[in-house]
Amino acid sequence: MNAFFAEFFGTAMIIVFGGGVVSNVLLNKTKGNNSGWIVITSGWAVGVFTGVLIAAPVSGAHLNPAVTLALVIAHKFSLSLMPLYISAQMLGAMFGATLVWLAYKKHLDATENADYKLAVFCTQPNIRSYWYNVITEIIGTYILSLAVLYMAEPEVGLGALNALPVALVVWGIGLSLGGPTGYAINPARDLGPRIMHFLLPIPNKRDSDWSYSWVPV
User: Fold this and answer.
1) pLDDT grade, residue 148 (50/70/90)?
2) Domain span at 152
3) CATH number for 58
4) What is the mean predicted confidence (pLDDT) over 81-106?
5) Is the dihedral of CA 56, 58, 59, 60 positive or negative?
């Protein structure tokens, strides 16, 4: 497996776990219906753990355009490779969202709430205030990027075990800062699945909320 496919499948795993847990909690007639926010944040954290575990030995497991950009700015990653990585992350997120749609197709059909259907794919703020929504996303993304940059230091990194602290950081961000916006903290995680929400044949879906789509990006 090369770096492109490592980023592709690693990002897809994040979305399969994350979009899957949101589906399980929000959609009608699922086993985990109404099981709560801590279940959602835990599912996303395990998704990050799985994605990093898969991709780290091959690509370094960026799995996030914001992380790739941060590593380029810190001179820890080649600018020439950035388009390849971000393309893989976006396509992987779209693929992962498609798998979630396939897995939960009947539950999407059985759910009338169009906002819940959109939430399976992308984030929405509980209180729409673009300025404060952007601030929340910036804080969360900064914390994640700072943690990844720190873990990238040879004397700090834990090898394959790097997946665990990164997942714990994502879990902590979700529990602490996820309330206002749903904590995208990853442009690919939000934009890729949002595109699939627009493209996929989902009964009685609402618009894909493009007016908000720039905030997580």
Assistant:
1) confident
2) 3-199
3) 1.20.1080.10
4) 99
5) positive
